[in-house]
Design brief:
about 160 residues; about 30% helix; 4 helices; globular; alpha+beta; 8-stranded antiparallel sheet; about 40% strand
Length: about 160
Amino acid sequence: MNGTKFKAKGSELTVTRTFNAPLDLVWKAWTEAELLDQWWAPKPWKSVTKSMDFKEGGQRVYAMVGPEGEEHWCITKYKTISTHISFSGEDAFGDKEGNINKDFPIGQFNNRFEENSKVTTVLIVTKYASEEHLQQIIQMGMKEGLSMAFENLDAVLKNLNQSK
């Protein structure tokens, strides 16, 4: 619906995106592995969840799988969850066993969801240990990848809306 807005300041990145779907569908798309795997990776990559326990103290272990079968494993650890309002946690690269790779930046994120007239805005604020860590993530293509993933999410939400 709306383009993705990025704002980097120091070691913090703020991302804002509005989706043409009600809050309950957007929340589901962010919190259920089956739906996350349909949109989280920029094409031609795909997201493949190995395990996900969306609860405080839980985690998601997943791979970003490339067109040649290459795998980049990631871990999302969930700290706080306030249903249909926000969830926070930690995003990191790792291995398929869920061990974090400390050679790469680790992001502390807070995702907030707000519905207004059947459209939902997601505000993501991610803090890194340093400005250099944030710049490393940006140089790895995070902005482009996330923008492409959000376009995938638009399509997933459109399908969910139609089958509702």
